[in-house]
Amino acid sequence: MTNDSVSTSEKKDGAGTVISNPAAQSIDETDLTDNNQSNLAVTLPESAKRTSTRNRLTGIGLMILTSLLATINGSIAKYLHIIPTGELVVITGIYSVCTFSVVIAMNGISIFEFTSKKLVAARVMVGTVSYLARVWSFQILPLGDAGALVSTGPLFVGFIARIFIKEKLTLVDILTMFLGLCGVVLISKPGIFFKTDEEQLPWFYFMVPVFSALCMAVVYVMQRKLGATVNSVTISFYIGVAQLVIGVGYQSIISGTPFPLLPDCYTPRYLLVLTGVFQVGYFVVANLTLEYEKATTATLFRNLDTALAFLVQATLFSVSIEMVSVAGALLIVLGTVGLTLAKIFNFKCGVEF
Asked: Long-range contacts of range 245-252, CB-CB < 8 Å, 24 or more positions apart?
């Protein structure tokens, strides 16, 4: 339920996997303006026009399905809050390892021969820790609040990139990050700003999804440095392995048992199984989306995740929605939309601000 990177050549899945599309280009390299597309529509034959329309409708459908899968997965994690977070992560890891092992075997992909092994290892570990924090957030916090906070990742990319790879930090980066932080304050409602007699979750609980978002910002920057040098399937396989290791380790620390415990019989196990299925499905659909839509469009559309999370919170979980939280979520969405539109304007007009 998190927004994706502002890069148009990369996307991510719920476990923090950035999905590279070799055919996609970054915003700065896009070769079709709106005018070009209009002229193209005039010169194309009727059959090509129909194909273009069908592809656009397919892209829209895939973007909607991506948001639905992300929301469903978060909702399942919320519903299964009685199951330890480590166990949910392990289940996802099992599905990831099994699924991508088959893909690797069928396509003859090497999981040992690739460059920048240390950077890949760091990217895998940081992405997995981000996913663990994300699952915990959905289980403990109100669904809408968690969904909005984990979507702040793109707002921190400019700051992280400035620190690690010395990219220029623009005024838009600073302003959108400030909007996102204001949204975080409104959602977390720290006692220093908000005085209430009602029982509230500790404000630092709300920092866990923000930590998840920060980790994803680091993942974006690492992926920029890696580029397309490492197959995304290889990274996804190792993320599954890391989920198994970190899930078991986290469970050992929290519960004192070396391995996650299977849920009791009364637990709806089919939902536990669906957690891994939907996560892998999310990866596949998000990857297919990039074949039909530019990632800038997909990034803007992913703000639907936040709206769906609040809707599910109010309808299925019967948890009231606080207007302060909605205001905070709107600030985060505004920051993400503003950052994406600024990148598009920068390309079309050649003006950086």
From this structure: 246/89, 246/125, 246/128, 246/129, 246/132, 247/86, 247/87, 247/88, 247/89, 247/90, 247/93, 247/132, 248/86, 248/90, 249/86, 250/85, 250/86, 250/89, 250/132, 251/84, 251/86, 251/87, 251/90, 252/86
As a whole number of angstroms, the distance between CA 279 and CA 276 comes to 5
pLDDT of residue 138: 93
Look up the pTM and report it: 0.76
Whole-number pLDDT of residue 140: 92
Taking alpha carbons only, the member of 297, 239, 246, 295 closest to residue 111 is 239
* Secondary structure element (H or E) that encloses residue 4, with its range: none
CA distances from 45 to 56, 199, 254 (A): 17, 64, 63
Question: Which residues lie below 8 Å from residue 220, measured CB to CB, with a gap of 6+?
Answer: 5, 7, 10, 12, 18, 153, 154, 157, 160
Do the beta carbons of residue 243 and residue 92 sit within 8 Å?
Answer: yes
DSSP state of 333: H
Per the CB < 8 A criterion, the answer to whether 248 and 259 are in contact is yes
User: In DSSP terms, which residues pair with 20 in a beta bridge?
Assistant: 10
pLDDT, position 46: 56
Residue 45, both tokens: 């034959």
**3-class DSSP state for residue 64?**
helix
CA 141/CA 154 separation, integer angstroms: 21
Please give the pLDDT value at position 265: 44
Positions of the chain with pLDDT lower than 50, given as ranges: 1-44, 265
Rounded to whole angstroms, the Cα distance separating 81 from 93 reads 18
Write the DSSP string, 134-180: HHHHHHHS-HHHHHHHHTTHHHHHHHHHHHHS-----HHHHHHHHHH
b/e 39-52 (16+ beta carbons within 10 angstroms → b)? eeeeeeeeeeeeee
pLDDT given at position 95:
85
Which pLDDT value is given to residue 36?
37
